[in-house]
Amino acid sequence: MSELNKTPSSSRLHIAIFGKRNMGKSTLINALTGQNLAIVSEYAGTTTDPVYKAMEILPIGPCVIIDTAGLDDLGDLGELRVKKSLEVLKKTDIALLTVTGEGFSDFDREIIKLLEEKNIPFITVINKKDIIPANSEFTEELKIKNIPYVAVSAQLKEEIHTLKELIIKYSPKEFEQPTIVGDLINPGESIVLVIPVDTGMPKGRLILPQVQTMRDILDNDGVFHVCKERELRWTLDKLKEKPKLVITDSQEFSKVSADTPDDILLTSFSILFARYKGDLMKMVKGAKALKNLKAGDKVLMAEACTHHAQPDDIGKVKIPRWIRQNIENDLTFDFCAGRDYPDNLSDYKLVIHCGGCTLNRKEMLSRIEVSSVQGVPVLNYGLCIATLHGILDRALKPFPEVYFQWLED
Description:
Layout: E1 13-19, H1 25-33, E2 51-57, E3 61-67, H2 75-87, E4 94-99, H3 106-117, E5 122-126, H4 136-144, E6 149-151, H5 160-170, E7 190-194, H6 208-219, E8 223-227, H7 232-238, E9 245-248, H8 253-259, E10 265-268, H9 269-276, H10 280-291, E11 298-302, H11 314-326, E12 332-336, E13 350-353, H12 361-373, E14 378-380, H13 381-388, H14 392-396, H15 400-408
Parallel strand pairs: 1-3, 1-4, 4-5, 5-6, 7-8, 7-9, 9-10, 11-12, 11-13, 13-14
Antiparallel strand pairs: 2-3
């Protein structure tokens, strides 16, 4: 199946499976998916690093199943594996804690504490019921503490359907992400999408935020027109009615702003994703921190994916160059990419993050929260570029609540 026909992993329900070694976590994944996706062995510690698999699980729908290393893994290497497993909590929508009928271990109680602290719903999966029946004291504890549970045999695929029903029941109701543009337009209104075709554009396809925005417009009964930046003025002249909104790639903000009449709202894909994936209100505050950078300050450039950097890469080259030209030359830029996001941000005055299209909303909000708790402002590429080009005021007008807060601050 073409990747364009699949639900992006970032938009799927993330189900993480935790538990000690040899609890049958990998067997449980195979039972849930109906496929032999995870390596199964009688030896403890077969799973070393978190393993991600995007799946369609009926009747749940599009999911990402995350298999983790045992919480009781031993030695220095085992400690690193457990740390990697716990990092999965940042993106977990619902957790399955896999145990046997003998009850919770100290390791299990520790992960329960973390799940409760982070308000992550979880289900206790009492596995191997065909070998170790659940004792009555354990099930009574679960009932008293109001912890949802089900006894299954992953090996024999018994009660797996019941587990799926519990996943549906206890998955967070707010899992569905907010609309990208649906609240900005009425049915029948049109939007112009400005999409440059340059060396950074994947060959033969559009990038994910552009595709998702198009789908969201269609879902909300809107109409969209697509053009390159040099064709925008011609496109607007040819339309019989003014579009409600123009959305541009952030790198073309200056030209598109100049070619878009003031009575047409303008923003960027990246700014739309700042609220779709994260918290636009908090990220806008990072724009003020950008303006206040001083000589010697350190800035972290954070990428969610690990794409091959182009010679004029937006995150590694262009934005640092623009900041040095327009704000302050004597700055230090550090870079991180993929799933590695620093826990300690105390050395930084600002985090500038990509749009986060490959992250699920839970993980993007987690990254924003990490920054907020440590008092380090964060903004994304689109907000940064709009600030540097002096058009952030205009780019925020489609979002009145954020726009007026920005003016007041």
